[in-house]
Amino acid sequence: MSCGGGGGGGRGPPPPPPPPHGSLRSLAREGRLLVIGSTGGDVAQIKVDSLMRHNLSVLGVGWGAFWEERPSYLQEQWAALLPLLRTGKLQPVLGRRFPLAQASQALLELDRRRAQGKVLLDVR
User: Fold this and answer.
1) Residue 64 — φ and ψ, nearest 5°?
2) Which residue of 17, 51, 95, 114 shows the fewest CB atoms closer than 10 Å?
3) Do the beta carbons of residue 35 and residue 59 sit within 8 Å?
4) Are 25 and 46 in contact (CB under 8 A)?
């Protein structure tokens, strides 16, 4: 999905998810917000007019409930993804790498929204 120079085209907030209103403002037109799980507490409310104004989509993702109904799903997804990764057709954007001893720095990278791509944490 193209960003068109006007912000992210799609985005999933880091856990615990911030109120989606700020996340919605960061999306380009026709962008998608993935609300992944819930850490409890109040669930943010989104006004539909803010979605329609910029043709935005919000998708709630409840992995736990989904996997309970279809336990083979994760294996099916990896069976489809691994060949794409091995052949280079799918190239995830990798960001900074941190040793386990600097896990707090890795979290700050995410919290301060400086991360570009996946933030990696070496556990060995």
Assistant:
1) -55, -50
2) 114
3) yes
4) no
Name the nearest CA neighbour of 10 among 21, 19, 23, 22.
23
Instruction: Encode pLDDT of 26-51 as tens digits.
Output: 788 898 888 877 666 677 778 888 88
CA–CA separation, 12 and 62 (whole Å): 13
- Shortest CA distance to 77 belongs to which of 90, 88, 65? 90
94-99 and 27-36 strand pairing: unpaired
With a cut of 50, say whether residue 57 has pLDDT above it.
yes
Q: Is 22 helix (H, G, I), strand (E, B) or coil?
A: helix
Three-class SS state of 12:
coil
Residue with tokens 């850490």: 39
For the CA atoms of 18, 75, 8, 117, the dihedral, rounded to the nearest 10 degrees, stands at 90
DSSP secondary structure of 58-73 = EEEE-HHHHHHH-TTH
